[in-house]
Amino acid sequence: MALVEVQVPDIGDFDEVTVIELMVKVGDTVKAEQSLITVESDKASMEIPSSTAGVVKEMRVALGDKVKQGSIVLVVEAAGAVAAPAVAPAAAVAAPAPASAPVAVAPVAAVAAAPAASGPVQVFVPDIGDFKDVVVIEVMVKPGDTIKVEQSLITVESDKASMEIPSSAAGVLKELKVKVGDTVNIGDLLAVLEGTAVAAAPAAAAVAAAPVAVASAPAAVQTPVAAAAAAVAAPAHAPGGNTVGLPHASPSVRKFARELGVPLDEVKGSGLKGRITADDVQTFTKAVMSGAAQTKAQAAKAPAASGGGGSELGLIPWPKVDFAKFGPIERKEMGRIKKISGANLLRNAIMIPAVTNHDDADITDLEAFRVSTNKENEKSGVKVTMLAFLIKACVAALKKYPEFNSSLDGDALVYKNYWHIGFAADTPNGLMVPVIRDCDKKGVLQISQEMGELAKKARDGKLGPAEMSGATFTISSLGGIGGKYFTPIINAPEVAILGVCKSTMEPVWDGKQFVPRLMLPLSLTWDHRVIDGAAAARFNAFLGQILSDFRRVLL
Ligand code: CAO
Fold it and tell me: Does ligand 1 have an atom closer than 6 angstroms to the CB of 288?
């Protein structure tokens, strides 16, 4: 068995093209004519076929490599005599000429009928190789546009290749004779330009060259010629295309996307058959820049960052408003923490069937106790806060109703036999949730002290990841600020969160009369997949009982 070096055949006028896809690997058995790699220039993409059957022994190219005619793609251990054309690079080079025809034609393509001066200039579809009835899949210009020589006018696609058809003349586009979905053939009138036409003499020459090469190719290499043509043409970007799976877009759109760093496979195509157009790339870029959408890479960096544009949920797009139309504006990038917490909140708000129960707890006696404790402990420097009592009370309620201290894992519930309580802290950088561990084992004084330290660290931006992880339940207290009730968002994978607002003196009916009591508004949000409404009401009621008589914590 002979080792055969498979080379890049004649690829027309392109000096160098980039390898954008490897379709085989070492050890693969390839057939003669099977596509090996996809290469791309700024005007066309094509697959390079194997001229021989056999087993791939060595890859000589990698993604991103630049190759040109004669570059060795890979080494095949040839099966049988078919190796001949491949080992004879000269023949192989000569052979695939027609294959390169659509490629070679593209940049020099449309032949101007009127070669000079001003006035109307007709632009026709040039020689596009063996392809007939190719479909116009993209129109890149519109009447009124000023067109340069060799500027791409349309993209056409056969079942085997896609290529851009450039203009051979310069001028203002007066009339476009084709539209998306039309089929065109060599010689069809494509456009009429007004202006100084530039005859495409070299283009015409190049166009002519391709058939000449084909015509002059020796009969013996006609088969590989055809093979190469077919393989070049393989539907690299065909929607739902066979082996390839590349996004469906023209080479210039690919180039445009590459320049912007846009992951084409994440762009939704609005063109014919879902083809991605330059406008789609622009729209995608704008959406990412405005924060309305995220690339998969961004989502991976901020793990919870999903649901950016809502497109995956089938939602209508986020409204795009030019606020400057209505008055002066100032645009400021959000900070990193806000972006991350925003993405988490969005996911949790969307994904969790959450319900919020509101209730009031009578903390008159507890507040009196807290105030007296703080007076007694004035010298210790540790101030006991209402939140510390709430943490202890919640631990008691979580122990009584363990599903509130659980997490969903598929169809199972994970009950945690530890009680780490997170508390929302308002910081200059945004919302953070430090976690106090093992609150069941700590007294109110120790919890108050740790809370003070963690809140300071949060505000100073010094919280480590370990200090923000592992919570089993979270409390969000706006008590120091104000408000009555709110609907906190669950901090997944926890299944419930308690929101607390400012306590106020209220007249409470004691059965005989109204008496002034200090009432603390509670808002408990819970995951309805895990918790039932009755359980939530019981949890709140129990919490209220503890807060109104804290001795119950001991029971
Ligand atoms: N009712 C009435 N007064 C309350 C109260 C309540 N429920 N809770 C606290 N207070 C009082 C305190 O007693 C304190 O008063 P004094 O200064 O007279 O003693 C004052 O309000 C300030 O308390 P604080 O907010 O500094 O302390 P805290 O322990 O209650 O809270 C912390 C600490 C870190 C939770 C808080 O500073 C904070 O960041 N809260 C915001 C949390 C938040 O943003 N939640 C929303 C998340 S959803 O977007």
Answer: no
| Atom of ligand 1 at shortest range from CA of 427 | 39
**Residue 391 in contact with ligand 1 by CB distance below 6 A:** no
- Which amino acid would we find at residue 415? Y
Pocket probe for ligand 1: among 377, 378, 387, 389, the residue whose CB has the most ligand atoms within 8 Å is 387
Q: In this structure, what token pair is assigned to residue 354?
A: 């959450």
Burial (0-12, 13-18, 19+ Cβ within 10 Å), 371: exposed
What are φ and ψ of residue 388, in 5° steps? -65, -40
Active site residues: 528
How far apart CA 164 and CA 455 sit, in angstroms, is 60
* Helices of type H across 352-424: 364-376, 386-400
Nearest to 256 by CA among 39, 43, 12: 43
The answer, yes or no, to whether residue 97 has pLDDT greater than 50, is no
Quote the DSSP letter at residue 244: -
Note if the pTM is more than 0.85.
no
> Which atom of ligand 1 approaches the CA of 455 most closely?
34
DSSP state of 498: E
Contact yes or no for 125/168 (Cβ under 8 A) = no
Structure tokens at 343: 């993405």
Residue 194 parent element (H or E) = strand 189-194
Give the Å distance between the CA of 552 and the centre of ligand 1. Answer: 24
Question: What is the Å distance from ligand 1's center to 339 Cα?
Answer: 24
Is the CB–ligand 1 distance for residue 145 below 6 Å?
A: no
Question: Residue 336 and residue 467: Cα distance in Å, rounded?
Answer: 18
Greatest mean pLDDT among 22-26, 60-64, 436-440, 480-484 lies in 436-440
Q: Does residue 85 have a cis bond before it (omega within 30 degrees)? A: no
Q: Is 35 helix (H, G, I), strand (E, B) or coil?
A: strand
SS3 category, 238: coil
Which residue's C-alpha comes closest to atom 8 of ligand 1? 479
| CA angle (279, 285, 289) in 5-degree steps | 145
Beta carbons of 422 and 491 less than 8 angstroms apart: yes
Give the atom of ligand 1 at the shortest distance from the alpha carbon of 520: 7
Question: pLDDT for 450-503, tens place per residue?
Answer: 999 999 999 999 999 999 999 999 999 999 999 999 999 999 999 999 999 999
Coil, strand, or helix at residue 212? helix
Cis peptide before 493 (omega within 30 of 0): yes
pLDDT at position 526? 98
**Nearest Cα residue to 38 out of 209, 241, 271, 284:** 241
Question: Ligand 1 centre and the CA of 114: distance in Å?
Answer: 81
The verdict on the CB of residue 422 being under 6 Å from ligand 1 is: no
- φ, ψ at 265 (rounded to 5°): -70, -5
Quickly tell me which residue has 């631990």 as its tokens. 395
